[in-house]
Amino acid sequence: MANYKSLYQEVILDHNKKPRNYGAIESPSHHAVGHNPLCGDHISVDIVLGDERINNIAFQGESCAICKASASMMTTAIKGKTRAEAETLIQEFLAMATGKLSHDACPNIGRLAVFAGVSELPTRVKCAILPWHTLSGAFNAVATTSTEAEQDPMHAPIGDA
Amino acid sequence: MSAIQTTLKSRSSSAFDVERIRADFPILKLTVNDKPLVYLDNAASSQMPQPVIDRLVRYQTTQHANINRAVHYLSEVATSEFEEARRKLQHFINANEEREVIFTSGTTDAINLVMHGYGRKFIGAGDEIILTTLEHHSNIVPWQMLAEEKGAKIRVVPINDAGELLIDEYEKLFNERTKFVGVTHVSNALGTINPVKEMIAFAHARGVPVLVDGAQAAPHMKVDVQDLDCDFYAFSGHKLCGPTGIGILYGGAALLENMQPFKGGGDMILSVTFEKTTYNTIPHKFEAGTPPIAAAIGLGAAVDYLSEIGMDAIAAHELALLEYATEQINSMPGVRIIGTAGHKAAVLSFAVDGVHPHDIGTLLNQEGVAVRTGHHCAQPVMQRLHVPATSRASFAFYNSMDEVDALIAGIRTVQKIFT
Question: Which of A57, B131, B262, B285 has its CA 20 to 30 A from that of B338?
Answer without folding.
Answer: B131
